[in-house]
Amino acid sequence: MGDATSEQEILRAPLTIGYDFQRTTGPVIGAFFTALREHRMLGIRDKAGRVVCPPVEYDPGTGEPLTEMVEVGTEGTVTTWSWVSNLRDGQPLDVPHAMALVQLDGADTAMLHAVDAGSPDNIGSGSRVRVRWRDESVGGIRDIVCFEPIEGGDHG
Amino acid sequence: MSAERVAVVGIGQTKYAAVRGDVSLPGLLREAAYRALDDAHMTMDDIDAIVVGKAPDFFEGVMMPEPYLADALGAVGKPLFRVHTAGSVGGSTAIVAASHVESGVHERVLTIGWQQQSVSEAMWALSFPIPFQQQLVAGAGGYFAPFIREYIRRSGAPDDIGILVALKDRLNALKNPYAHLHEPEISYDSIKESFMLWEPIRYSETCPSSDGAFAMVLAGEKAAEASAAASGVNPAWIRGTAMRSEPATASGRDQISPKAGQDCAADVYAQAGITDPVADIDMVEMYVPFSWYEPMWLENLGFAPEGEGWKMTESGRTRRDGDLPVNCSGGVLSTNPIGASGMIRFGEAAMQVRGQAGDHQIDGARTALGHAYGGAAQFFAMWVVSSEKP
């Protein structure tokens, strides 16, 4: 018998796990996804009167249940952004694009999504963008393919 | 410095069901948590810290739910953390919460156990063929069935004791509006004729898969008495808490009556001043996911001599009209949201000594034992609660 600390081959083996899960959305997130399927955007009014989009089930400050769904626009304003020029697997678009925080018209908070701006010259804080919808929507965040600049808008 | 006295002053639970598709995961927790706060006549503003517990993340596929539970529970600005000890987690979570009050660090602590079994298949979620590791390929029932067989061989128990336990617990569940399984038609014969899953465990002798949550508010002496004055419900004073663990597999370990369970019981009885468990304890909420574990745990917990636990079951002593009622709520055999199941045992014991168990109340229950076990019968958590302040 050898010494366990002596030099020897250390075995390795792969472990790939696959398993099925389901998700329940609850009334608020469920309404948001259902509206996406109809190409509409919903937010929710929090206890301070702000419209939070995407909506949350409970007030971020007080924890109280929130119920007042508010339809917001499908156009909005870029608050901040980053340019993705080197494309890798798993990114939302297969052309160079921006990842941006977009505050939809009527909302008081911004959401992160891709903007197909073509060039970093076409986007900036304050740029106006609109939703580009997927043709066959299913009720998920990827029903929004991305945002795109509104022609003639301010590019910051 | 003496430890602070601790009491359960608020209890809340969800209706348990195979699928609670009407709520999100945080919504499920809130349902129990806010009912417990209402019961305690408190709001989240009164709570100093939150301790949550659930079974393995892989059971739901939600890795680390704690981060987003802080705001979803209304716990912003407060300490929130999680406990995990396999199936016993609901019990150990309550004990960790109690220790924070006992130590004097916090005065009022909210504790919640939960599980959404409907979103996955917990039976096989721990059975992956992990390279170079011992593999659990059986599912929980397949793992425990051989130990039940060995118990029957050692004790010489008649082979229908498990049927009697299942019948008792399912009938008890009919008196508990929150229980998952309500089977008014259940009978000795229907259990006996149910599908044999892992001999000697039949389908109707196993726990269901449930969605649900259970929550408690624990408070120090001063806060407990103020809460009781407001709610008009007597606190359940915690007289002792204990946890023990041991290896899943080790040569010489007795899986029929694990030493960790015996030691845990002896410890909690000593703290609570219990010298004769059958005489001193009025009712037990015991973790029985497979029917035969009732007689096995009756022995492990010192209620019966070795080999004689089944006689207590057979003679009806563990029925709600017996001298040691076990699982008046219907037990794990009627409701099993895994991460909550241990806390339900602890909380149902507290409900009994608070006199708030409704139709399944045992009249005059003053001292009760809550018991949970987990893993390969290797984690144990127990507490004794009483209507009498220690």
Structure commentary:
The complex is a heterodimer of chains A (156) and B (390). Chain A is mainly β and 156 residues long. Chain A has one helix at residues 26-37; strands at residues 41-45, 51-52, 69-72, 75-84, 97-104, 111-115, 128-133, 144-149. In chain A, a hairpin with a 6-residue loop joins strand 5 and strand 6. The radius of gyration of chain A is 22 Å and the shape is extended. In chain B, helix 3 crosses helix 12. Chain B folds into two domains: 6-120 and 210-231, Thiolase/Chalcone synthase (Peroxisomal Thiolase, Chain A, domain 1); 139-208 and 239-386, 3-Layer(aba) Sandwich (Peroxisomal Thiolase, Chain A, domain 1). In chain B, helix 2 (66-72) links the parallel strand 2 and strand 3. The relative contact order of chain B is 0.20. By secondary structure, chain B is α/β, with parallel strands linked by helices. In chain B, the strands form two sheets. In chain B, strands 3-2-4-7-1-8-11-10-9 form a nine-stranded mixed beta sheet. Chain B has a two-stranded antiparallel sheet with strand order 5-6. The mean pLDDT of chain B is 94. Chain B is built from twelve helices and eleven strands. The chains are: A mainly beta (156), B alpha/beta (390).
